[in-house]
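Quick one:
INPUT:
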């Protein structure tokens, strides 16, 4: 595995995207900026690990409300704009940190020019957010809904922005078809210098969305592609961020805890599930870069989880505490959780 570091670096507020060995996690609020609950969402997501938060700007009131949001949070905000470039201009005046536009519905030269000039004057990056479902008609006619049409759409708008002097560009190429999204991003990574925001759009409910996002983003991350990610789920944003963090941690792209739990089998000697859930919750609250194992039996547990820094292998009346595959001591059943937490804290 390697990281694609030869992208440009773009600063969104105080967060750098691209040109580095790091992937920035982001999400989007459910409430629009003018809603009273928007700021509370931004704070919650920021606490849950979002380094950038995007808001949907539907009208002038939303674009103006960004000013109030900016007074109440340090988290960089991204305004998501479709169709009307004037909303983007107002969002920039309101102090937004980044704009996302869709080249499929905002592509008139004079509008893009006005936007490029205003964004450049305020040092505001623009994400060209291509979506396979809303591509320009001429590109679909020429290439169909393919990776070539998606990358062509991004390239055309990037060239327009650059011709008007704006170079702080991030590109995203999203599709609900995982294969298409992966192919488009592989092609963009080969042919464009811009940092890539990666995601699988309309990925769906918790299970479906997690599988689709893990499949698509996993392949991209493995190929070193992706400077910022959003896992899109229809459910709680905290879940998106949790899945995103776990995905990045699987590739060593952020340091965090790893919990190994055996799949259990006929040798399972105790009620393991509650212990796994409690330790998972503990590690969420205390995210140190350690590997913890919870295993179902003492016969194979310590050996199967040798790479864990610390672990428990449960038994009928008592279990074993082990470190790096070596048994430390026997622990009564009802003390397994406390003993494991103590061992983690003493690592
Ligand atoms: S650790 Fe024990 S219970 Fe768990 S899968 Fe291995 S053999 Fe089965």
């Amino acid at each position: 595995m390697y990281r694609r570091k030869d992208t440009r670096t773009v600063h969104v507020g105080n967060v750098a995207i691209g040109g580095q060995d790091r992937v920035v996690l982001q999400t989007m609020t459910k409430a629009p900026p003018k809603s009273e609950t928007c700021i509370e969402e931004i704070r919650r997501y920021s606490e849950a690990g979002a380094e950038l938060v995007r808001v949907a700007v539907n009208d002038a009131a939303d674009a103006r409300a960004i000013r109030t949001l900016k007074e109440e949070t340090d988290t960089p905000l991204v305004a998501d704009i479709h169709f009307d470039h004037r909303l983007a201009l107002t969002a920039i005046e309101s102090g937004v940190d980044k704009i996302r536009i869709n080249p499929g519905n905002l592509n008139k030269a004079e509008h893009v020019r006005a936007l490029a000039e205003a964004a450049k004057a305020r040092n505001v990056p623009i994400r060209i957010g291509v979506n396979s479902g809303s591509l320009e008609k001429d590109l679909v006619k020429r290439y169909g809904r393919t990776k070539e049409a998606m990358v062509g759409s991004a390239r055309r708008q990037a060239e327009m922005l650059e011709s008007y002097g704006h170079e702080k560009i991030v590109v995203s190429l999203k599709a609900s078809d995982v294969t298409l999204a992966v192919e488009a991003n592989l092609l963009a990574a080969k042919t464009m210098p811009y940092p890539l925001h990666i995601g699988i759009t309309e990925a769906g409910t918790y299970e479906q969305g997690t599988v689709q996002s893990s499949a698509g983003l996993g392949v991209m991350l493995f190929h070193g592609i992706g400077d910022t990610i959003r896992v899109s789920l229809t459910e709680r944003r905290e879940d998106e961020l949790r899945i995103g963090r776990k995905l990045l941690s699987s590739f060593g792209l952020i340091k965090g805890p790893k919990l190994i739990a055996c799949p259990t089998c006929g040798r399972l000697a105790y009620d393991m599930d509650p212990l796994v859930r409690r330790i998972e919750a503990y590690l969420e609250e205390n995210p140190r870069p350690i590997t913890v194992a919870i295993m179902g039996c003492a016969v194979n547990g310590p050996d199967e989880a040798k790479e864990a820094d610390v672990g428990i292998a449960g038994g009928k009346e008592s279990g074993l505490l082990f470190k790096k595959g070596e048994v430390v001591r026997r622990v009564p059943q009802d003390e397994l959780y406390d003993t494991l937490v103590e061992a983690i804290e003493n690592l």
